Amino acid sequence: MARILGYIAATLDGMIATADDNLDWLFEYGDVDLGEHDYRLYLKRIRTIVMGRSTYDFIERDASPWAYGDQRVIVVTSRPIPEPKGKLEVRCDVDALVAELRALEDGDVWMMGGGQLQMAFLERGALDEIEIYLTPEMLGAGRPLFPLTGFRASPTLISAKALDRGFVRLHYRFDTNGPTGANTTR
């Protein structure tokens, strides 16, 4: 069974992007040394990447080449993608996608990008672990790491580590089989 993982950077005030989806604040840290936690090393151990439509649209607008050559990429959207930037699959039913991902046996799944899709997976008890890289920035407003939906959880801290240039890595595990991994107060 595949593990579904998160790996994301956030500001100290809990934002992952500005209100207009700008990441310039994060790109200023392109030279940060994350050591064994470097994004490129993380990506090498991932077989499947799942992202929402907003994350895909951001990647599509970027001039960089498609970075996910041999990996399975799934975009969760109800809108067609007429000319994909790279090889990808489209899904619109999150519940069916969770079942599909759990049945995979060829490697880990990265829940990439924004908090909205990560929250949808959390609400279904389908995010096993998350690595959050807190940056020494405060945006004051923007896109939150986790949208406020009424979902409650008590993840277990696996590790916390200070890194280069004021970054802090927080690594949590969610109890996807017990009540704390799927508590909702809706």
Provide structural commentary.
With 186 residues, the protein is an alpha/beta fold. The protein has one domain: Dihydrofolate Reductase, subunit A (3-Layer(aba) Sandwich). It is 20% helix and 31% strand. The chain has five helices and twelve strands. It has helices spanning 24-27, 39-44, 53-61, 94-103, 115-123, and strands at 4-11, 15-17, 46-52, 72-76, 89-91, 108-112, 129-135, 143-144, 151-152, 156-162, 168-173, 183-184. Strand 10 and strand 11 form a beta hairpin. The protein is globular and about 40 Å long. The relative contact order is 0.25.
Number of domains: 1
Remind me, CATH topology?
Dihydrofolate Reductase, subunit A
Oligomer: single chain
How large, in whole angstroms, is the Cα Rg?
16 Å
What is the CATH top level name?
Alpha Beta
Short description:
By secondary structure, this protein is an alpha/beta fold. It has five helices and twelve strands.
